[in-house]
């Protein structure tokens, strides 16, 4: 008889699923604005301190896991470039435009990852589709490996999810750059945040309708197929 001790067998919580994404993206971005707006640090100091987490994550991936952490690496590169710009910039409009560098760099990274056949946004979307369920995880692996009837359609939707986010973030970057040089500076300071939030909402709605929703339905169907092919597993569950 096997005992279930500690957290063994526990389904991942929402925090477990979102953890890597929060650490790689939300924490560096949030800390930048916290240091700059709440603590009154200079742009240079805020960028420097917000670079600590992505730098540690990138170094840890190289040393411990022998691979690069894509999102953490992108954020680190953006912060380093922004730090260099801070040395030479005295133009407030250029500083506003610089804030869009994160969106543009991540967007390009996402689109390149799709072209390379490794859609970057899958890591953030998968937990919401799989829901920590072992049967759904198995079905996911069959679908992405090409072993399932719907594998081609599933992988197409997977790529579409990342493409949507790449294009949305790229569009957000363009809008914010145009606004930085056409809208009054005082207005653009708060309008930039509105544009960013609007882009996030559009990204969630469009990517959900075009990709995540259909993928979840295909995954549920594949789970049913797996249980029909292995009824003893379904009975045991």
From TrEMBL:
TM ranges: 38-56, 68-88, 100-117, 163-183, 189-212
UniProt KW Membrane keyword: yes
UniProt KW Transmembrane helix keyword: yes
Keywords: Membrane, Transmembrane, Transmembrane helix
Protein name as it appears in the record: Intracellular septation protein A
